[in-house]
Design a protein that fits this description.
It contains eight helices and 15 strands. The protein is an alpha+beta fold and 297 residues long.
Length: 297
Amino acid sequence: MGKGRSLELYFIDGKPDGMLTAEVFNWAGHVLKIPRTRIADALRRPETEYTGVYVLLGDVEGQPQAYIGEAEDLKARIRGHVAKKDWWETAVLITSAANNLHKAHVKYLESRLVELALEAKRMPLENGNAPTRSSLSESGLANMEGFLDTLMMVLPAIQVDMFVNKAKKTVAEKMQSVVNKYPVFELKSPRLGLSATAELREGELIVKSGSIVRREWVGERGAKTHYFILFDKLIESGILKPDGKHARFTQDYAFTSPSAAGAIVNGRSTSGPREWKLKGTTKTYADWEAEQIEKDD
């Protein structure tokens, strides 16, 4: 059984797009998400005077942008950003419920959050480079990494997914001891020279590094499909690298559906459940999936 967690969201305004707080049972952290239109009301709350880290979210000339910072008095720092930065639309304040984070803690968290955001490559940062990590004791380091682990569950749940890294590092696989634990699928087109391999692991279809896909998106670009946007982003980030007449995955990459993975391989909208085949067989993903459901009956 997985280790489930319970997240408590409190919509302060009674609206899904208003102010909200997020807390997890037995976690010291406290998250306050604030639309800029409610900043005056938010800064009257006591937790805004705590020591913590913060994320500003918005866009510049139609492109998303974020800024990550830390402060011993968040209220004073956010007031400064209200006056000096006009591009942001949402602020996320991360503190502890008991206000027991100190300067070294938040300097460390700031540095790690910038590192994670730069690694994920999901949103440009106004920060540029990651600040130097503060020096913490061994126990302090463990505490902050534990704090971050839970925070990385909380933030995507409140639609702050800039730290979610879909690219899977090869080093993460060094702990995999059972080779055949996860089913492996293939999507091939000898005529087009396409050959991709993917592993279904923990609800994600992970296309493996080295998989050969189309060099360009050849399908429709419009409201009927959004996968071309992802295709372009993977090219821009270097996860897909042009290689002769094709492109190649430079690292493992996780998709939430076989159709999304198939679209990137084929460069067009794809019925992933029908085109991915269990490795070494003619069995489609859809047929394999149906078998798994029948086993549970």
